[in-house]
Amino acid sequence: MDALAGLLDGPRAKGAFLLRMIMxxxxxxxxxxxxPICLMCVTEGEAWVVPDTGEPVLLRPGDIAIARGPEPYxxxxxxxxxxxxxIGPDGACTTLTGEPLADAMRLGVRTWGNAPDGTTxxxxxxxxxxxxxxxxxxDALPGLLHLPADTWNCPLMPFLGxxxxxxxxxxSAVLDRVLDLLLIAGVRAGFSRPGAEAPxxxxxxxxxxxxxxxxxxxxxxxxxxxxASLAARTGVSRAALARRFTALVGEPPMAYLTGWRLxxxxxxxxxxxxxxxxxxxxVGYSGAFALSAAFKRVRGVSPQEHRxxx
Length: 310
Prior knowledge:
The protein has 13 helices and 13 strands. Helix 3 (132-140) crosses helix 10 (253-268), helix 8 (227-234) crosses helix 9 (238-249) and helix 11 (276-282) crosses helix 12. It is 41% helix and 19% strand. The chain is of the alpha+beta class. The model has no long low-confidence stretch (mean pLDDT 87). The protein has a seven-stranded mixed β-sheet. The chain has a six-stranded mixed β-sheet with strand order 5-4-7-2-8-9, with no helix packed on it. Strand 8 and strand 9 form a beta hairpin.
């Protein structure tokens, strides 16, 4: 498992909000759903994504935009178009004064808009859950990642366009998995572009020493790792590994391991059937007391307080 796969291997889309939006100008939708991440793909026409801070981005057919929440933004036919509708939590659509619009703008299965034959079509996939494992990934993303069609080639968008309006058994599970794949493909393409400000852990995966060390930590976080054991497995001295790892990743190996273990633990604690003791042993701590001490020291709350808040 590499670092990116590890970060995406925890929380996955489950009952994600997916929608095909068909619009005819003039139109403008204010997004205030507080979702941790949203993917938008234009299949016909053009759409502007206008963050509250930052420059507007024009999406053309084949483009994808990944918006990192929970900050609001606007999607419209023009960068200066005033909002005409609002999307709130769980995809609730209203006027700016709070009057429901869902029935008035429903055009079919997972299809919504102001005109059934509108000239612009946007596929929207929104993750509802802000999982703690995904937080490291979300923190590495810009507020708005734009991938023009001519910079990447992804066959998933036409498939999503075909599947999003179907109403068949198991359809939500199919759409969840397609959304996961599209997110992975988009993030990977974004981080791999020339000049991209990819996080240190992503760039370090290409290093023969640090990349191997990262994979070892990702694959087996419960192992009693030390700098010495990591150095032995990567074929360098302890000093060389510590120096090289810190320079490329931005933190020492054991600090990275602690962060990764606690991120995994935070996600596992969302399962009400998992005890703190069982979670502790799964992520490399001797028991509930050791995990609680580390959790409190690093995150400022106990595992139980985190679980209650989640």
